Amino acid sequence: MRKDTILIIGANGQLGSVLTEKLQTIFGYDHVISSDIRQPAEEKSIFEYLDILDKKRLEAVVEKYQVTQIYHLAAILSASGEKNPLKTWDINMQGLLNVLELARVKKLSKVYFPSSIAVFGLETPRINTPQHTVLAPTTVYGMSKVAGENWCQYYCKRYGMDIRSLRYPGVIGYQSLPGGGTTDYAVDIFHKAILKESFVCFLEAETKLPMIYMDDVIRGTIELMDAPSSDISIRTSYNLSGVSFSPKEITEAIQKYIPSFKTSYSPDFRQAIAESWPDSIDDSQAKKDWGWKTMYDLEGMTEDMLFQLGKKYKPVLA
Ligand code: AKB
Q1: Rounded to an integer, what distance in angstroms lies between the CA atom of residue 196 and that of residue 102?
Q2: Assigned CATH class of 173-211+242-317
Q3: If residue 69 lies in a helix (H) or strand (E), which one and from where to where?
Q4: Which terminal Cβ of the chain has fewer Cβ within 10 Å, N or C?
Q5: Per the confidence metrics, is the pTM higher than 0.85?
């Protein structure tokens, strides 16, 4: 077990809950502190209530546990963010600045900040989107991630801090549910399929988006955080690629296992957000710098999702 103590902010979200368990296996139960504004469904880790806008409480939690690293996952995502743009900016930006400032003052050894494919926009090349390209997002969530990436780089350069970041595609996993994102449909569709229900998709059939399986994204995050600092050439945020597909393609992949499964389409405001994002991502810099490699393709991901959700819903389906 390692000596660091980790604080995860936003630990009860889709990624945070899975990352908490993974980090516990690396650092030990007592060295991973989860925090959120929502109480956990089950207490599987040491938990502290923490609103990221409350600087004093953040400092108190860091001091109480002698925290040495922060994973700052709390944010309002793309679709929810459009319903309340100013609140989203406040939470996403001020929250990050509170973390960066405290990390600077307390001389924390590392900070992790997730960025997103939402940093890209309509002027960005859609296919194999390069690492260095136009960042002109259409959503306030995307704007906050672009600004956040630049603040991270600024703190690294100006104060010599070690802050690392990945531009996450839509994350797909059986362990937890996403909330408020444009890519959320790609998790919901599996739950409907396993429950033998049909699915109404809020995106059009052919809208392709970059996605990634939970196992890959957790492994990628840990690998990035473990890499020697000298290998990290990108201090804004690394492009990360998993698997790209459209609602039609994922429906067909599910139908190989559940032939009767059907999707219908009823696009809403999230269609425009999806259309502003790339089809696929070039992550060659992550591969070169710290050896990133995707393991799950559409088929592997679909098989595992259906298998795992089948186990989870067994009592309901029996
Ligand atoms: C969203 O859809 O907003 C997120 C993301 C791609 O960052 N899942």
Answers
A1: 48
A2: alpha beta
A3: strand 69-72
A4: C
A5: yes
CB atoms within 10 A of CB 157: 10
Q: Residues 87, 95: contact at Cβ < 8 Å?
A: no
Between the CA of 105 and the centroid of ligand 1 the distance, in Å, is: 31
**Catalytic residue list contains 141:** yes
Give the C-alpha separation, 154 to 131, whole Å. Answer: 18
Query: Where do you find CATH 3.40.50.720 in the chain?
Result: 6-170+214-239, 173-211+242-317
Report how far apart, in Å, the C-alpha atoms of 295 and of each of 130, 141, 212, 213, 301 are: 21, 28, 10, 9, 9
Residue 318, both tokens = 């029996």
CB 263 within 8 A of CB 254: no
**What distance in Å separates the CA atoms of residue 265 and residue 270, rounded to the nearest whole number?**
12
Measured between alpha carbons, how far is 30 from 24 in angstroms, rounded to an integer?
8
| Token representation of residue 315 | 């009592």
pLDDT one digit per residue (tens) for the chain, 318 residues: 678 999 999 999 999 999 999 999 999 999 999 999 999 988 899 999 999 999 999 999 999 999 999 999 999 999 999 999 999 999 999 999 999 999 999 999 999 999 999 999 999 999 999 999 999 999 999 999 999 999 999 999 999 999 999 999 999 999 999 999 999 999 999 999 999 999 999 999 999 999 999 999 999 999 999 999 999 999 999 999 999 999 999 999 999 999 999 999 999 999 999 999 999 999 999 999 999 999 999 999 999 999 999 999 988 877
Q: Is 77 in the pocket of ligand 1 (CB under 6 A)?
A: yes
Report the CATH fold assignment for 6-170+214-239: Rossmann fold (3.40.50)
Query: What is the Å distance from ligand 1's center to 258 Cα?
Result: 27
Place of tokens 């139908």: 255
Ligand 1: nearest atom to the Cα of 182: 2
